[in-house]
Amino acid sequence: MERGFDCFCQSENCLGFIQGAAHLPLDVLTKYKLSDYIQQKLGI
């Protein structure tokens, strides 16, 4: 993702600032289904 953005969805699980999977902690990433490509790039 080239540029992050503020999220105002008001979901209780909202991350607040969206900036791409590379910036998320592993415990958050494991809650989502990620493509093989993204998993490879993240080394998970």
Give the arrangement of secondary structure elements.
Layout: E1 5-6, E2 17-18, H1 26-29, H2 36-42
Antiparallel strand pairs: 1-2
What does this structure look like?
- By secondary structure, the protein is an alpha+beta fold.
- The protein has one domain.
- It has helices at 26-29, 36-42, and strands spanning 5-6, 17-18.
- A two-stranded antiparallel sheet has the order 1-2.
- It is globular.
- The mean pLDDT is 89.
Compact description:
By secondary structure, the protein is α+β, with helices and mostly antiparallel strands.
Give keywords.
about 45 residues, alpha+beta, two-stranded antiparallel sheet, 2 helices, about 25% helix
Distance between the termini: 19 Å
**So what's the oligomer here?**
single chain
Number of helices: 2
Task: Describe the main β-sheet briefly.
Answer: 2 strands, antiparallel
What share of residues is helical?
Answer: 25-40%
Low-pLDDT parts are: none
β-sheet strand percentage: 5-15%
Q: Calculate Rg over CA atoms.
A: 11 Å
- Mass-distribution shape: globular
SSE class:
alpha+beta
Round the mean pLDDT to the nearest integer and report it.
89
Q: State the strand order across the main sheet.
A: 1-2
The sequence of SSEs as H and E is: EEHH
Q: How many separate domains make up the residues? A: 1
Number of strand segments: 2
